[in-house]
Write a structure and sequence with these properties.
The chain is of the alpha+beta class. The protein is 19% helix and 28% strand. Keywords: Signal.
Length: 194
């Protein structure tokens, strides 16, 4: 469980990697990454895509260890924090606040790793909005039933609705037969002699 929190923290922190790779101040970093989509793959096979929001939260989808279900993740505002030249993550339930080393590879690729644990890294690639929209369109669930294609229907005849009249409804009369009550004596209870 803690490993997933650390990996989530790496992912969240490294999403802001492009901002600090070029030695930008906190405001420049925020403007640079805010709202942009990044695809990522991590050292353990974890992969996904997400975006850093204006409030320094993040949202996206993650598939842990490269298999299993895709989980949609939303980190609340102020989860990612710029402290001096370091990017750190404040995640509820995590006993520490990890900070990240950010290395720029080129204009679209970056690597983010947890400070002091260089082996725990994620590689990030800036995705454009068009690629993200195409990925969403391809990933949408499909119906198991084929759609029937029908042309437009034109109404050419009007059907009259019959008039509904009011009629007096007679109540149902129940017939109660009065029969003389039979008198039966109560069964006698006897003790068993066995």
């Amino acid at each position: 469980m803690v490993a997933r929190f650390v990996l989530g923290a790496v992912t969240a922190g490294a999403m802001i990697a492009p901002a600090l790779a070029g030695q930008m101040n906190a405001d420049e970093a925020r403007r640079f990454v805010s709202g942009k989509v990044f695809a990522f793959t991590c050292f353990d096979g974890t992969r996904g895509a997400g975006r850093v929001l204006d409030d320094m939260g993040a949202a996206g989808a993650v598939q842990f260890s490269g298999s299993g279900p895709i989980r949609h993740v939303r980190l609340p505002g102020n989860t990612l924090q710029v402290r001096g030249q370091a990017v750190c993550a404040s995640i509820k339930g995590l006993p520490f606040e990890p900070c990240f080393n950010l290395d720029k590879k080129d204009d679209h690729n970056f690597r983010g790793s947890v400070s002091g644990m260089g082996f725990a890294y994620c590689d990030f690639h800036h995705q454009g909005a068009v690629q993200m929209l195409m990925a969403r369109a391809v990933a949408r669930p499909r119906s198991l039933h084929a759609r029937e294609r029908t042309g437009s229907v034109e109404v050419s005849v009007r059907v009259e609705t019959p008039q509904v009249g009011s009629a007096k409804i007679e109540p149902v009369k129940s017939e109660i037969k009065s029969e003389p009550a039979k008198t039966e004596s109560a069964p006698e209870l006897r003790r068993s002699t066995d």
